[in-house]
């Protein structure tokens, strides 16, 4: 246990030194490594503090002004502030800030607009979609009839003509657009037209790109989608929670689906942290951050292409890069674990039309939200690409000494760019 731990968490260190030590170890790990997982980020100290307040102590089933417990004078204000900030930031008529995470938020959409057995449509998981978009192993694929669209083999991009044909043939109750490994701009307007023609509710799942949308670095789905589902971490740099944004006409359906349909009392400490993150996202500095995320990703993609990497769709328009390592003769999982030993944190990921198994896929998925939060810019991306190249080569040859040398270089650069929210002493 370090003196820093005792200063910042004296009660935890005294009550449970084992957990205190593990928290410190995670702080050290986050400080010393280059985090390239596109769904991860660093929150501010203010968000961390809001997440650990006495709001944790209060049950608040229901909604502001309509609770099932008394003593809500403060809690109601916290939730109203969070919802109003969400509405203002994203330009929506209604915001529900109670979902515990992204998957329950999506489940609430199904509960609001579909019945068990109804047809729903989303992007196939191996093509970049999310489990909750009707994929078979998810409850959404077991309770509903999921039909999936994908991407073209030759371009790695969505063919909207094929999406339209599928929607008109299958007539789903809901169409999901967005996903978990989509490196290109989503054409929300085109999806909106398809949904209207098919008589479907359009749900834009922007969990990955919500921060880019808030910062004006990605088009917004709000004018085109009936419901927008998002997590509050990732590019938005908030706590681990979620929101459902919608038109006023859908407000009652959404609210009833979240509570009492799926959840009990909201996590009030998380609601407060969401409110803080939304305030931060409304500042001019956040817009600069969002644009820097995209600029870094594009620059990194260019350097990776120059080093012979095969990028799905040939590059990126957002924060995310999906790499097929088949030409490098290294499985994605082997590469990801080797890079982790080098202090470069990525995740192994399936690529479209992958011939390998999902838990041992051909690709890795990387992104720039976290490194941008640390202040790294386009001038650093050549170095990051070089490190990835060296790490992948070392993974192929089993050169552990090369990985150890890389880890020292990574730690040196990370020390020069402290992460927001982490202790500095």
Distance between the termini: 13 Å
The overall number of domains is 2
- Largest sheet features: 7 strands, mixed
The CATH topology of the largest domain is given as Aspartate Aminotransferase, domain 2
Query: Percent helix among the residues?
Result: 40-55%
Query: For the residues shown, what is the average pLDDT?
Result: 96
Number of strands: 15
Fold and architecture overview:
The chain is an alpha/beta fold. The chain folds into 2 domains: 51-281, Type I PLP-dependent aspartate aminotransferase-like (Major domain) (Aspartate Aminotransferase, domain 2), CATH 3.40.640.10; 288-416, Aspartate Aminotransferase, domain 1 (Alpha-Beta Complex). It has helices at 3-8, 10-15, 17-32, 45-51, 73-90, 102-113, 139-143, 160-170, 188-198, 210-214, 251-262, 268-281, 284-306, 332-341, 369-373, 381-397, 400-416, and strands at 34-35, 62-63, 66-67, 94-96, 119-123, 145-149, 174-177, 201-205, 227-231, 242-246, 310-311, 320-324, 344-345, 347-349, 363-367. The strands form 4 sheets. The chain has a 7-stranded mixed sheet, with helices on both faces. A 4-stranded antiparallel sheet has the order 11-12-15-14, covered by helices on one side. It has a two-stranded parallel ribbon with strand order 1-13. α8 (160-170) runs parallel beside α9 and α13 (284-306) crosses α16 (381-397). It is globular.
């Amino acid at each position: 246990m370090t003196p820093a731990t005792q200063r910042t968490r004296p009660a935890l260190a005294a009550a449970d030194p084992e957990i205190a030590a593990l928290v410190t170890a995670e702080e050290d790990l986050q400080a010393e490594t280059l985090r390239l997982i596109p769904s991860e980020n660093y929150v501010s100290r203010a968000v961390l503090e809001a997440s650990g307040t006495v709001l944790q102590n209060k049950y608040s089933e229901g909604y502001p002004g309509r609770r099932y417990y008394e003593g809500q004078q403060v809690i109601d204000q916290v939730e109203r502030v969070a919802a109003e900030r969400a509405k203002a930031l994203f330009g929506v008529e209604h915001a529900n800030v109670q979902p515990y995470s992204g998957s329950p938020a999506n489940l609430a959409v199904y509960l609001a607009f579909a019945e068990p057995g109804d047809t729903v449509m989303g992007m196939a998981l191996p093509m970049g979609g999310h489990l909750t978009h009707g994929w078979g192993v998810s409850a959404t694929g077991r309770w509903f009839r999921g039909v999936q669209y994908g991407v073209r083999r030759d371009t790695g991009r969505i063919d909207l003509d094929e999406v339209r044909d599928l929607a008109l043939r299958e007539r789903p109750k809901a169409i999901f657009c967005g996903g978990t490994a989509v490196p290109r701009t989503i054409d929300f307007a085109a999806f909106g037209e398809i949904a209207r023609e098919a008589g479907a509710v359009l749900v834009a799942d922007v969990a990955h790109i919500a921060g880019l949308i808030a910062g004006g670095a990605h088009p917004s789905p709000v004018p085109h989608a009936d419901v927008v589902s998002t997590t509050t971490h990732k590019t938005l740099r908030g706590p681990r929670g979620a929101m459902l944004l919608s038109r006023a006409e859908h407000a009652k359906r959404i609210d009833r689906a979240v509570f009492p349909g799926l959840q009990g009392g909201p996590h009030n400490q998380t609601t407060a942290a969401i409110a803080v993150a939304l305030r931060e996202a409304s500042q001019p500095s956040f817009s600069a951050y969002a644009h820097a995320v995209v600029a870094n990703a594009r620059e990194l993609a260019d350097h990776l292409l120059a080093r012979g990497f095969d990028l799905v769709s040939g590059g990126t328009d957002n924060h995310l890069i999906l790499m097929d390592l088949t030409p490098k003769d290294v499985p994605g999982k082997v590469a990801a674990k080797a890079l982790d030993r080098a202090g470069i944190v990525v995740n192994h990921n399936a690529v479209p039309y992958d011939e390998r198994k999902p838990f041992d896929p051909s690709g890795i998925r990387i992104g720039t939200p976290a490194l941008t939060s640390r202040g790294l810019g386009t001038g650093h991306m050549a170095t990051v690409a070089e490190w990835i190249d060296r790490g992948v080569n070392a993974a192929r040859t089993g050169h552990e000494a090369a990985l150890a040398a890389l880890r020292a270089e990574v730690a040196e650069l990370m020390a020069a760019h402290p992460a927001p929210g982490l202790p500095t002493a």
